[in-house]
Write the structure tokens for this entry.
Amino acid sequence: MKGLLMKGLIAATSLLCATTLAAQVSETIDVRIVNVDVTVTSKGKPVPNLTRDDFEIFEDGRRQTITNFYASEETRTSVPVATTAATPSVPVEPPDPRFRRKVLVLVDNGHTTRHQRDLALKNLEAMITDRFHGDYEWSIGVIGRGITLVLPLTSDKNAIHEALEIIRKIGTRREGATTFEATREAGLSSSPDVQKAGWSAFDGDYAQRLEHAASSSDAEQSIAVKFIVPAYLDAVRGFASTSGRKIILLLTGDPGFTDPLLVDESPGGVGVATRGFGPGAGSMWETRKYVQTLRQSIVQEANSSGVSFYIWNVQGLDAPGDVSGDVAPSTNNSAVFWLAKETGGRFVGSNDPARSVQEFDTASSTFYSLGYSPAHRDDGKYHAISVRLKQKGDFSLEYRNGYSSSPTSTQLARAMTSPTAAAMQPNDLPVTLAFGTPQTNRDVITLPIEVKVPFRNLQFLPGRIGVGAKVVVYISVFGETGKNLVASTFSLTPGFKSGTPDLNGILVYRNAIKVRKGDRDRVVVAVRDATTEAIGMATQVVRF
């Protein structure tokens, strides 16, 4: 398999525009706040005007004190107020950036028909044209044999419409390259490259297996689930360590997460559903357990990244026995309903696309964010969350059921294993990436890289000798199909013995990677200021 030669980074060399302090920089105090976004509805409508005193929140069964509270009603507050010459405009307070929505529209081209998918995209575009006022951000991607990111996070309507048009031209069951630029270079669906993309770990006959899984045996169903799960995990990991109301709007049919029917296939069996006891039942139970494990892995990854799944069944809810179309009818949505519920999202399965879009927009924009400070330090463990409403009534609450207690450093390291990270992470630091002169040895190319960030953007703290900063550099490389080939981390401590940092200077970090001649690889670097937790990203594609 090509591209796997890139086993690691060459030993790092750091050229800093200052001396490295021997003394340790002063420690900072880390006050961790866990934010839980809660959507409250009654009879299908949002419940407004609630306060922090209306809620109770529990972690691992223990009541927590709600220290932070925020109410979001973006759909209403973001619409401009009409004005006349006699009536001055009323300024609208923008949403708090800490709770700003970030939506990744993920189109599942493997489980949708082209007609139903395009109908859903048409209604989504209508909502963006009529109701989107740039108060939050959209990203666009497709899923097939992996994830293809077509558009990074943006509030530009024209860019969003262009990305959706690209998806329409690609068609279903056959995605293209792993980046927006590569998709455009491929000439959309007219290029052979569009046919071959996906993860290199996936079987070449994935499309055939997928079709069989939709209409044949439970074993093949589990194969299809296995192939699509990595794409879901990459989608949520790309959001790790970012702030805001993080949402994946998944446009799909039946992705195959439903528990397989247990059938007695033993000699003499009559082929009816069983409880899994007796000859031949063990493999069925193993299949069910396997599918459930994959489902749970998505939930925990999503909750660890603070991402909610809003799942839109664009194929509609077919009546039992209806087998029209080239995709199996989606009569059992229990699994995707569960996936949305456990991550604080919602399943929107209406046969009316306009109604589905409206439901998504209202539910995702009207919520309450509850924040609390856990008694424990970051321990890397998964902790359960439950939320209650004190007042009695017919209320429904939607929120993530847990989180991973991990520091920003761990979250960013997780994100850097996803090909979507460069498009989803913040850019608070001005980071630049440059390449040196490549050295060729047969089919292997050693490529020097240079990462820069201005000193004025870093936080320097006093130590026993002068001042210093804590900086971490993350370097990842992804192959042409999006497979993560390198993910390494390097800690730096630039400092000045004089006690005054040179604000006009630049921190320069140099390293090198190995690539194979002819491969198209994407290099992604991130720089994190460990004191302020500010992050900057840079990325470039290389091919020799």
Residues 13-29+407-543 form a domain with the Immunoglobulin-like fold (CATH 2.60.40.10). The CA atoms of residues 150 and 180 lie 4 Å apart. The radius of gyration is 25 Å.
